[in-house]
């Protein structure tokens, strides 16, 4: 995420300031987290995270794709991609060659062999790779050549159709589209995209700032501007409508960081202020009308949360994760309670009920009941 100014010099200045602010926030957050207990605080009968050793303590995983209880993909810093097929007992490094300088902030997997990973950043740092053989080989299918674009997240409707989103270019969010499973990409026309607010952008924090449900509906989360919004398209990204959310904004570090939709109608939004020590009141919201309107959670998570996922086969249950803990809702997002105090950046659940989380210091975990 970054803001766009009126001149190239302004753009570069803001980008540099944002990177420095983010790095400082991460450093402060890491120091604070070192003093926090990692032990779960779950009540009797609650699900709990079972940590899995990835063997990559220097990597921060913000990309996660849960295939099932046994299979999951992770992506993160240093161009790292890992895959497990045995429930996290072992992890195979399947990173694309020559990608050590990239940050893979989102990964979408169709099964144990096919996956698409997104690298974020300015200009050519934004790239997409696809594998069809479990990560043994990768093909670069997109490299951004527009210095004004910065890609944050991607999502797939099915095994063929998907989208990726960039922060605003010339005043509007930019959308990439694929119809062949991520093997090729096309920039969609922006005529159906509402104008971005001053300073508005997406957060590449968990791979969940762009999410889909069903064959055509997709939602885009924003922050950094005076209002935190959610944009919705019902035609695979051709036209969009925007709705304000009650999640606090008004600062480059605040807004909606992650979305999750149980179906095309019921959705959750979480976020807040990612800077360590900053309060994040009202950092969760719900919708029951496909994102046309949003209501604040009556009992929101106690701090900033960067990832959220519905629990399969439980219509009203979901998890939200962040650097200071995991929260559980059992009433559709109206109230949340802390389940665990470990640090995770992203969470994802598979149709068979397998839920995974990942984050800093190579952390990964699977939910156990």
Word description of this protein:
The protein is mainly beta and 369 residues long. It is 7% helix and 38% strand. The protein has one helix spanning 8-33; strands spanning 48-51, 61-66, 72-76, 81-84, 92-93, 103-109, 115-122, 127-131, 139-143, 150-156, 162-169, 172-178, 186-187, 210-213, 217-221, 229-233, 241-244, 254-261, 267-273, 284-287, 295-296, 307-310, 318-322, 325-329, 337-340, 346-349, 355-358, 364-368. Strands 6, 7, 8, 9, 10, 11, 12 and 13 form an 8-stranded antiparallel sheet that branches. Strands 1-28-27-26 form a 4-stranded antiparallel sheet, with no helix packed on it. The protein has a 4-stranded antiparallel sheet with strand order 2-3-4-5, with no helix packed on it. A hairpin with a 7-residue loop joins strand 24 (325-329) and strand 25 (337-340). The longest helix has 26 residues, at 8-33.
List keywords for this structure.
28 strands; mainly beta; eight-stranded antiparallel beta sheet; four-stranded antiparallel beta sheet; 369 residues
């Amino acid at each position: 995420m970054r803001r766009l100014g009126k001149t190239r010099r302004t753009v570069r200045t803001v980008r540099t300031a944002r990177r420095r602010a983010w790095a400082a926030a991460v450093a402060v957050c890491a120091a604070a987290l070192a003093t926090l207990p990692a032990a779960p605080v779950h009540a009797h009968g609650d699900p709990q995270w079972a940590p899995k050793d990835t063997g990559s303590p220097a990597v921060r995983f913000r990309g996660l794709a849960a295939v099932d209880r046994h299979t999951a993909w992770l992506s993160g810093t240093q161009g790292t991609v890992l895959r497990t097929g045995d429930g996290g007992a072992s992890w195979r490094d399947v990173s694309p060659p020559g990608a050590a300088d990239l940050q893979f902030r989102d990964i979408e997997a169709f099964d144990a062999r096919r996956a698409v990973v997104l690298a974020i950043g300015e200009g050519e740092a934004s790239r997409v790779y696809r594998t069809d053989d479990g990560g043994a080989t990768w093909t670069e299918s997109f490299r951004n050549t527009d210095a004004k674009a910065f890609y944050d997240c991607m999502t797939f409707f099915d095994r063929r159709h998907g989208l990726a989103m960039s922060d605003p270019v010339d005043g509007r969010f930019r959308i990439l589209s694929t119809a062949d499973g991520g093997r090729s990409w096309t920039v969609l026309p922006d005529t159906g995209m509402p104008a971005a607010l001053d300073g508005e952008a997406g957060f590449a924090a968990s791979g969940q700032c762009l999410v889909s449900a069903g064959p055509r509906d997709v939602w885009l989360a924003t922050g950094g501007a005076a209002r935190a919004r959610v944009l919705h398209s019902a035609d695979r990204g051709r036209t969009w409508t925007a709705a304000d959310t009650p999640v606090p904004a008004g600062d480059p570090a605040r807004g909606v960081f992650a979305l999750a939709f149980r179906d095309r109608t019921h959705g959750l939004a979480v976020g807040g202020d990612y800077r360590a020590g900053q309060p994040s009141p009202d950092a969760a919201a719900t919708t029951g009308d496909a994102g046309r309107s949003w209501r604040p959670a009556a009992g929101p998570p106690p701090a900033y949360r960067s990832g959220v996922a519905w629990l399969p086969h439980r219509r009203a249950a979901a998890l939200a994760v962040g650097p200071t803990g995991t929260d559980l809702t059992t009433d559709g997002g109206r109230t949340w309670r802390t389940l665990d105090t470990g640090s995770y950046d992203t969470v994802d659940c598979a149709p068979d009920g397998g839920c995974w989380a990942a984050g800093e210091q190579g952390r990964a975990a699977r939910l156990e009941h």
